[in-house]
Model the fold of this input.
Amino acid sequence: MAEKEQIKYPGPFVVKDCALVSVSTGEKAYTLAELVEKIKKIDPSSIHHHFWARHLRPSFDHPEFHNDFAAWVHIEVRDRILAERLNLISPHEYASMEDLREALILLIQERVFEDEHLGWRKAENPFYFVKSQLIIFDTGMRLEWPHEIADVLESFSPGTIFYHFIDARRRNPQGLDDFRNWIRQFPPDYKPLEDLIAKVDPFFLSLYEIRDFLIRHIRTFCARIHAFREEPSRRKKGSPRPREGG
Amino acid sequence: MSGNQGLLERYARVAGAEAVAQMQQLAEKLRGARVVHVNSTAYGGGVAEILHSMVPLMKALGLEVSWEVIQGPPEFFEVTKKFHHALQGRRVDLTEDHLRLYQEVNQKEAERLADKLSEADFVIIHDPQPAYLIRYLPKRRGYWIWRCHIDLSRPFYPVWRFLEKVIVQYHASIYSMPEFSQPLPHPQYIIPPSIDPFSEKNRELAPEEVFRILKDLGLDPSRRLVVQISRFDPFKDPLGVMRAAELAQKFISFQLVLAGGGAADDPEGERVYQEVVRAARGKKDIYVFKLPPEAHRVVNALQRAADIVLQKSLREGFGLTVTEAMWKGKPVIGGATGGIRTQVVNHHTGFLVNTPEGAALRIRYLLFYEEKRREMGLKAREFVRQNFLITRHVRDYLALMLSVCMGSPDRLELETGEACVWPPVEPGPPPL
Done:
């Protein structure tokens, strides 16, 4: 307890789980011209869904396309150029969903101006705008100290990873995941852990891959922390000693 | 250990403890809510099978759940079968008399079920047969939800227009795929259906029992077997399946079984069955079985004995027979339509095809490569475990119920130990 007071303990990390229930918006588009018009007005949560919900969708391998817009343009509109351009969009680089919406519109419009017939080319199957309802569950699990993450990561469901790594970027200032947001409130001993977690790019990794990456790297870090703890003389003066998780 | 607790623990062993914990957290907020499911048949067909599992599971979670089946003369079910075809895109002749009969039966059933439905907190109406009940119960107090199990992507418009007049009165509707949703003034949830791993149709069977059932059917358990299990319905393309088998049998020897049950609300089945029997007459290694609705173990055994399962539908709502086969570790060759596309992931859990020729090629491929068959089967089972078990289905229904009472927010955050939100502070929903 004394340690917690000394470092202004930020409180435990509350481990949550989540599930997505899809909700149809009732909107669909058969052409790129229609797609742009719908994107202009669609609920921002639908744009978020078409970039991120695929992580919790049944799949087996790395998809060729990283968002639903790029996949639809490739498969149904059959324009490889626009599909490739859309595929490059990294949604977490945009400060808000409105910025992302604007980027989408600009890319599609730019391509339509390059080929005047493209805007009206009819897709075999329309693009269905869907949004998600996020249901957030409390797992009852609490972490007292950052290095405890290593002990529980294996038990994290894909929903837990989604909530703390992907959904968190919408909730937290500076688009941080929940782990980094929590860890940065601890003393600098944990900075390397924060830097490790920052290396995760959730856009290209599946939820299982994110978990495996964290398990591998955080365990290495924690092993170092434990070794460090056993050699107190090497600790910086005044820095608190990490406590063993329980 | 109570019966309810035992039931939940059984599901936890198969679906995972977190799947059950999620249902419990949602159900905690709805404890005591009265839920009534209404459909048109107690046996036969995917809806009845789902309800046989869903109702006890919802009860075990602390809700007051009942299931009502509407009744009507055979002519009513002839009309609703036409509705079914029309909503899946076929032009049908529906006369004023047909529509009047449909409405009269719904009105009569609304009077019979009035007390139960008017007092329920949630009424879930399955498919078009009982959809008009809402019109004849103006004093209802709960939330009404329409669950559409069929492919509504390109309905025959006059019939959809007739139905839409009452669907707009519901507080929400549910579809198996986004493609099936329609422009409606209420939230439309996308919830795929599911199977129950403990039902008679899906539970583990001893190899001796599978062997005996095959012998009883006159099949040779030592030879390769390809099956399609589905109602005898033109949309399931039984004649296309037979054609595919004949093309493949020129290269590789196997038995084909076309087996299907009937359902009380499907009077057309007998006609299609006779057509299939005639087409199979005199053909070696092609077997057609009409199974009674309660023949779940026979279906289970056929799927378990099969090397490959086909579901070469031309239109399909979801295709629970695909889910059942995948749960038994079988690769599936499915028609590239409806919910089959969600389940059959090309080269992973099976193959999607568009023609008898396409199906024939994939039958040959999978019968030839035993290792590939086994690998796909393992993936298929895990795919179902993660996505299409009854636990996920019930979780989504509970989330929807909670969501409609809270005005369908984008986020629904559940805190453990938080007070039950049921009954809501507000009196019931305003009548629509």
